[in-house]
Input
Amino acid sequence: MQSVLNIAAYRFVPLQDLTAWQTQLLQAAQRLQLKGTVLLASEGINLFLAGDEAAVRQWLADLCDHEPFVGLQAKESWSAKVPFQRLRVKIKREIIRMNQPAVAPAAGRAPAVDAATLARWLDQGFDDKGRPVVTLDTRNRFEIDEGSFEGALDWNLTKFSEFPHALARHVDELRDKTVVSFCTGGIRCEKAAIVMRSAGLQHVYQLDGGILQYFERTEGAPHWRGRCVVFDERGSLDAALRA
Output
């Protein structure tokens, strides 16, 4: 029986008093006996937590009571046991490392495309204006080896901070196309989409909620092949969000 609720969520939002946030969120998670990782930075929050359903939902509801996190939506999956050994709440320079301080998603998101729209675009091969659509996998090489969208562009990254340099090599190939960047939960493809727009690409979208939300909101995850790596003891999930 899969009775453990796993959640993943992030938000780019300016945060101050990071030590106070760290203490507050750690104590709340400890009280509710949750395990996983919460990353905090001046640019926002990134979290992966698991535990008893009621406890997880209570922690998330309490977080969303605070102004920076009102309306924060989490991707959900289930497992038979908690897939984390411990609880960590850490302060980092970036919640997803790109080594590009000028990239500030909180100042304005790149446009997003939802799961159903992307599935339709991939069915027809072009967007609603007739422009060819390509998907761009912003994950690392070992993740892509487990699964990806059919025909997705793969720039053979070993770490996300390599993305800006890879873009410089490939930018001209993308100019006349609609590019949909994607990753596991949305955080990498959001930063990537902003960088691509700053490089002059006009028709760039991020996949809203990433692969996990695509699995949640489409029937059978059309055009996806293989599994999706997750960063806990489950290793990877299939399109039905099963380990």
